[in-house]
Design brief:
The chain folds into four domains: 137 residues, Response regulator (Rossmann fold), CATH 3.40.50.2300; 100 residues, PAS domain (Beta-Lactamase), CATH 3.30.450.20; 71 residues; 149 residues, Histidine kinase-like ATPase, C-terminal domain (Heat Shock Protein 90, 2-Layer Sandwich). It has twelve helices and 17 strands. By secondary structure, it is of the alpha/beta class. Strands 2-1-3-4-5 form a five-stranded parallel beta sheet, sandwiched between helices. The longest helix is centred in the middle third of the chain and has 36 residues. The N and C termini lie far apart (74 Å).
Length: 486
């Protein structure tokens, strides 16, 4: 404490200053000396970090009382403790009336002065700790999550209101954490070993089934060890979140999506296949009007099927209910093949394709279906949101160290700066295209970015109004798989 404590001495008494500064320096205190109240106030207004003021009241009654008055009127200096030193015993009464830290008569006993200074500083620190703890308790009590603070023996030292509601009478200061848990979850399994809580941050669930006496309860438990400057564990913070309702809704949503997947995908697939047979003439020749009608029907069914797939795909991506695959993919072959497929597709306008492999032989590891979703969304957007009769789409690939950039560039109208991050939000489309004339759900870019991030990458956009847009997919570069010997 002494190394970090700093004392401000306000005195013109050379003997007092000499003896006190010598003693303070010997006892490893920091200090500063000012010879007048005006100089001391000027120092304090500079924001110096003094912990205690030793005021020699023999400066004069008016100067000393004026200094104390200004000190207590300023919120920044009012909390500072003041030790009065004076040959006038009446200052003892004034120190008590003004609620000052203490009084020391002159001639000052330096040993007594050091004892008083040390005592005052310790009391000040203790009071500050109590005030900070009270503030912490107030903050913890307004939190909706349960908060427990444990000591290194896993005994509860602090508990907020939300945690008390979860545990009832079982969790009180001094109780052991796992004993409190077993009181609420008597049949809990899969809990970490007690020693693990001090090793690292943990996250686990604990469940209680519904009984005639209690509702079902699922707690998400997160623990965080608190380390001091020597990396030694001093406490453990436990955060308890009641996720029962959230998990119930997630389960219902999963069931609903399974139902929708079957109820929508199956009839759409049949309708799409049947319409395709009419359009391709498999079921016989149609009149011009019939052909036009069936072509329109086929296109709209295709759009609807695509929208349904994106909505269902988005829910899967959002819930992370997919496996991150590590298929080795050679981008040269992959992109050449994709552009050949795109060139054969009917887009409703002329599309000029260009592939620039600025660096050949680049590989990534990713689920091929996931990469298809990313590339398809970017290509479709480059064409769909372009209002020109002839569209130019360029795909570039090059590497930067251990990262690969796959860029899709178009010559469309561009995206306003304020919209460039919003387009990755769920169901968002730029105002100009939020009409029935442009098919889509506003989920394509959301799905693409989340997939890229699931693989440690990202998707960014650079765009200028009237100049088109460039969507940049960054992914980790990997070495090509070793060729097997024949």
């Amino acid at each position: 404490m002494k190394v970090h404590s700093h004392i401000l001495i306000v005195s013109r008494d050379p003997v007092l200053v000499s003896e006190l500064t010598y003693a303070l320096e010997s006892d490893e205190y920091g200090f500063a000396v000012r010879q007048s109240a005006e100089e001391a106030l000027a120092r304090l207004r500079e924001g110096t970090e003094d912990d205690l003021i030793v005021l020699d009241a023999d400066l004069g009654r008016n100067e000393s009382e004026g200094f104390l008055q200004l000190l207590q009127e300023d919120p920044a200096t009012a909390p500072l403790p003041v030790l009065i030193v004076s040959s006038d015993p009446d200052w003892h009464r004034i120190a008590v009336e003004r609620n000052l830290a203490d009084f020391l008569p002159k001639p000052a006993d330096v040993g007594a002065a050091l004892v008083k200074i040390d005592t005052i500083l310790r009391l000040t620190i203790a009071r500050q700790i109590l005030e900070e703890r009270a503030k912490l308790d107030d903050v913890l009590d307004v939190m909706t999550d349960g908060i427990l603070i444990l000591d290194t023996a896993l005994r509860i030292t602090r508990i907020n209101v939300a945690a008390k509601r979860l545990f009832g009478q079982g969790a009180v200061p001094g109780a052991r954490f796992f004993d409190a848990l077993s009181g609420v979850f008597p049949a809990a399994s899969g809990l970490p070993a007690p020693g693990d809580l001090a090793e690292d941050a943990l996250a686990f669930d604990i469940e209680r089934p519904e009984t005639p006496q209690s509702r079902p309860l699922i707690l998400e438990v997160r623990t965080h060890p608190v380390l001091d400057q020597f990396r030694k564990v001093t406490a453990i913070v436990v955060i308890l979140s009641d996720v029962t309702e959230r998990r119930r809704k997630a389960f219902q949503e999963e069931q609903f999506l399974d139902l929708i997947s079957h109820k929508l995908r199956t009839p759409l697939s049949i309708a799409h296949k049947n319409a395709s047979m009419f359009v391709k003439g498999v079921l016989g020749t149609m009149s011009a009007d019939q052909s036009k009608f069936m072509t329109t029907l086929y296109e709209k069914i295709s759009e609807l099927a695509d929208s349904v797939e994106k909505i269902l795909g988005f829910t899967v991506v959002r819930a992370r209910k997919f496996e991150v695959a590590d298929d080795p993919i050679a981008l040269d072959d992959y992109l050449s093949g994709r552009l050949e497929l795109y060139a054969k597709r009917q887009w409703g306008r002329e599309v000029l394709w260009r592939l620039e492999l600025l660096e050949k032989g680049l590989h990534i590891r990713m689920g091929r279906r996931h990469l298809d979703l990313i590339v398809n969304n970017l290509i479709e957007n480059a064409i769909k949101f372009n209002d020109k009769a002839q569209v130019h789409v360029t795909v570039y690939v090059e590497s930067f160290g251990d990262r690969i950039e796959l860029r899709v560039r178009d010559d469309g109208p561009g995206i306003p700066p304020e919209e460039q991050e919003k387009i990755f939000e769920e169901f968002y489309q730029v105002d100009k295209y939020r009409t029935l004339n442009v098919a889509g759900t506003g989920l394509g870019l959301t799905i693409a970015r989340r997939l890229a991030r699931a693989y440690g990458g990202d998707i960014l956009v650079r765009s200028m109004l009237g100049k088109g847009s460039i969507f940049i997919v960054t992914l980790a570069r990997v070495e090509p798989p070793a060729k097997e010997n024949p």
